[in-house]
Structure formats: C-alpha cells, structure tokens
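Reproducibility note. Readers wishing to regenerate the assembly model reported in the main text can use the exact inputs given here. Chain order matters: entities are listed in the order in which they were concatenated for prediction.
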Amino acid sequence: MKIIPLADRVVIKTVEVEETTKGGLILTGSAKEKPQVAEVIAVGPGGIVDGKEVKMTVKVGDKVLTSKYSGTEVKVDGEECTIVRQGDILAVVED
Amino acid sequence: MKIIPLADRVVIKTVEVEETTKGGLILTGSAKEKPQVAEVIAVGPGGIVDGKEVKMTVKVGDKVLTSKYSGTEVKVDGEECTIVRQGDILAVVED
Amino acid sequence: MKIIPLADRVVIKTVEVEETTKGGLILTGSAKEKPQVAEVIAVGPGGIVDGKEVKMTVKVGDKVLTSKYSGTEVKVDGEECTIVRQGDILAVVED
Amino acid sequence: MKIIPLADRVVIKTVEVEETTKGGLILTGSAKEKPQVAEVIAVGPGGIVDGKEVKMTVKVGDKVLTSKYSGTEVKVDGEECTIVRQGDILAVVED
Amino acid sequence: MKIIPLADRVVIKTVEVEETTKGGLILTGSAKEKPQVAEVIAVGPGGIVDGKEVKMTVKVGDKVLTSKYSGTEVKVDGEECTIVRQGDILAVVED
Amino acid sequence: MKIIPLADRVVIKTVEVEETTKGGLILTGSAKEKPQVAEVIAVGPGGIVDGKEVKMTVKVGDKVLTSKYSGTEVKVDGEECTIVRQGDILAVVED
Amino acid sequence: MKIIPLADRVVIKTVEVEETTKGGLILTGSAKEKPQVAEVIAVGPGGIVDGKEVKMTVKVGDKVLTSKYSGTEVKVDGEECTIVRQGDILAVVED
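Running the prediction on these inputs yields the following structure tokens for the assembly.
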C-alpha cells in the first residue's frame, strides 16, 4: 500500500526519540508546540496550492523537524505516519 | 439520481474500515481530526474558485485520505457520501 | 413581485424533503451543517465580486444541494426562498 | 441636509413592513440575520475599495433586500436611514 | 502644535451633537456602533497602504459621519480629536 | 550599542507626558488603545514586507503618535524604547 | 549534527541575559511578549514563501532581537536553539 500526497503535502515517519538523542539532538519546547524529528517517506507534486506556486524542497529520505501537532496521523502497513504541508516543516537535519 | 459537484468539490464514498485494515492501512489520530479512506465517485470541473485557478487532480475511482470531519454528508440512493473540496483531500492511496 | 439577486447571489426554493426521498436522496449530516435540496429560481449576474471574477454556473430550474444554514431566508408571494452565494452551492442534482 | 456616502457605501431607507406584505413579500429568517426591504436614497461613487475595483450596480430609488443588522443607522431630517456597503445588499426587488 | 496623519489616516474633530440636531441630523444606532458627525482637520497623504493604492477623497473642512468607536482619541491644544483611517468614514454630510 | 530595526520597523523612545502637555497635547483615550508621543530613534530599511513594498516615511528625530500598546519594549543603555511597525504610527507631531 | 532551516526560517541561539546586560541592553516588556537577544546560527534560503518573495537579510553571527515566545525551541548537541521566521526578528543589535 502506497500513500501519494496531494499538492504541497508530505508524508513523514517519526524517528524514534532515543535514536535521535544519540545524534545529539534533544527536543525541548512548550507543551503547545513540541518539535520532532521525522523522515520524509513521500512528497507531493507541489504546483499551484491555494493559488500560489509551491516548489517542493524536501525529498524522500530527508530528516526533518516539524511541530508534533502539525498534520494528520495515519498508520500504513503497521507504521505510524503523519501527513503535513511542506510549510509546516521547520528544517532539515543532517548528521 | 446523480450528484454533479460544483467548482473544486469532490463527492466521495467512505470505504469500510474493516476492508481498509486488510490492505494494511489502520487509521489513528486525535479525536479532533480523524482521517478516513474514501473512494471518489464524482469530481467537479475546477476552474476559477475564489479567484484562483484550481486544477482537479483526483479522478473517479481514486481511493483518497481525508479528514473525517471535512465536508458535508449526503445519502444518494441509499449510499452515504460526502462532498469535500479537493484541497481537503490529503493523499491518494494505491494498493 | 420579483427578486433580482446581486453579484454572485442565487435565489433558491427548498424542495420538499418527502419528494426528494422518492428520487433516492436522503439527507443526513451533523446538526452543524445539514444539506438540503433546492431549486434555483433566480441567478445574479456574477462579474467582479470582492475583486474576483465570478462566472455563474447554475441556472434557473437547477436542483442544487446547499447547506441548510447558508444564506438568508425570505418569503416571496407565500413561497419560502433563500438567497445564497453561488460558492455555497455544493452540487447540482440530476434525476 | 444631504448624506454623500463614500466608496462603495449606499444610504437606504427602510420601507414599512406592512406595505411590503401587500406586495407579496413577507420576511422570515433567523434572529441572527433578518432581511428587510429598503429604498436606496444615495449611492457612493465606487472605485477602488480595499484595493479592489467596485462598480456600483444599485441606483437611487431601487428597492433592495439587506440583512437587518448590516450597516450603521442614522436619522436624516427625521427619517431613519442606514449606511451599508453595496456588498451587503442581497437583491433588488421589483413589483 | 500640528498633527500630520500618516498614510490613509484622517484627523477629525467631533461636532457638538446639539448643533447637529438643529441641522436635521439625529444619530441613532446600536450601542455597538454609534455614528457621529465630525469635521476633518487634517488628511494623510494616502499612497500605498498595506500594499494597496489609497486615494484620499475627504478634505479639510468636510463634515463626515464615522462610527463613534473608530480610531484613536487625542487632545490637541485643548480640543478633542480622533485619528481614523479614511475607510472608517461612512459619508460626507452637506448642509 | 545600536539597534537596527528590520523591514518596516521603527525604534521609538517615549517622550515624557509632562513635557508633552506643555506643548498643548494632552492624551486621552480608552484603556484599550491609549496613544502616546514618542521620538523616532531608528528606522528600518522598508522594502518588501509580507510581499508588499513599504516605503519608510518617518525619519530619526520625528515626534510620532502611536498606540501605547503597539510594539515591543526594550531598554537600550538605560533608555526605554519600543519597536513598532511603521503602520502602527498614527501621525507625526510638529511644534 | 546540523539544522538547515527551510524557507524564511532562521535558527537562533539565545545569548545569556547577564552578558547582554553588561553591553547596556536590559530587556523589559509585558509578560505577553518579552523580547530577547539571540545569535543567528543558521539562515534559510528565503525565496517564495506563502506565494511571496522573501529575501533573507540576517546572516549567521548577527545578534538579533526577537519575541521570547516566537518560534519553536530545539536542543542541538546540548545547545538550546529556536527556529523562527525572519519576519519575527525585530532588529539586529550591534555593539
């Protein structure tokens, strides 16, 4: 089963917090907006979204930082994923 | 009886959750925004919507993910349907 | 007496729910937004509305689906009508 | 004394409800937005309003339908008037 | 001391209500938005405001109608004035 | 230490209220939006702000009127300053 | 580990308040919006953000003033950082 996001949406899979901590990134933040590291597993085509041209800049395999409460959670083949808009991705993380 | 959606609207028919689970997709999510799998049964013409050009990218027969609380529910010939705007469709699901 | 709607407004007359049910359409939905079938009895000229070009796509005699709580109700010559904006019309229904 | 409305504003004078009823129009509606028949007594020049071109389509003497709670009430030479934006006028009524 | 309003702002001085009543204008209205007659004492240059071209159409000496609760009150050389945006001026009043 | 405001921001320093009163300006207003006189001590470059061209029209040394609750307060070398957007400045005051 | 901010985002590292005070800058302000001095450690590429061209004007190493409650906090290799949009940066501070 495959999820193909529409427009400027991106499917991401949360990376385990423990694994992240080893790499040096520990997430803090208020209860209101808690960021998290996730891996990009599918990227929408971009194009005209709400009448504005959106160019997709993240790619499959990127590790990204998003707000924990952004997007919509789904489970695909047993894996928890989240569908977010690219604009809700704060940064790409490199090792 | 036939429903012809206007503008960027799409008529979708919820797919049974049990059937979906077999294919590997189990839906989770907060009570606030619960996604669901649905099949597209009619697609509006797109065009200028709120002053912006909208191109329809979903087609009849597509399996799509939407928020459960998006759109307006109707029953056509005994079948429960929902009318959503294309922008409320998160992703297309392929087997 | 005649009502000539301005801009992108449309005058619609609610179709009896019983009559609709015969044709196979039974309306469901949350208390928040209950759709209904109505017949178009007058259509505004469209044109520039809020700075955006609006082209009228519904026509007199069309059966349409709208949210029950859209628009403003008036009674013309004893008939209950509603004035809605075309953008609040979800779909056209054909027998 | 004369009121000259600015921009896309229109000065209207409420028509007596009894007189209206004779012509066949009885107004209903929720307490939230009650429409009323009024006569246009002055029309602003239109032009660029909030950065958008507005063309005035109503004219002095027109009978119009507006929401009762639109606009600002003033009394001119003993007559109650209301200043509304043209976009708050729902329809023109003809006998 | 002189106040030079910026952008699309206008400095107005409330005209005594008693004086107004003689001329035939009595102000009514809900507690929420009470209109008042005022005299324009300074006019901003207009130009690009929030990215939109604004042309000033009121001039010093005009009697104008505004909502009582629009703008910011200041006292200049003992006189109470109000700074409003031109878009909050409903109409010009002529005797 | 020097503060260089970004975009359409302006650094202002509140002028003593007592001094202002001598010049004939006494400030009144609701608790909600209390205007105040301030001196401009730094001006941002303007340019494209939120996608719109902003031209700076105030300059260092200008006495300006703003809402008391606009902007963000900072203390620079013992002096209380406020950083506001130029659009929050109501007027320039001249003696 | 490296954080590469997307779009118009900037990664900043809060500068110790004690150190700042020595330089002459003491921060005040309401509990609602408390500004703080931070050092820029990474800058996004800018470009089209929400359909509008954004040019990045801050650079790595700049000391900037932001609202304390802007942005999302993360910890990178033991250092607390915050990801903000460039538009939330009020000013650059120079010694």
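We highlight two features of this model. Chain A has one domain: 9-93. Chain A has a mean pLDDT of 82.
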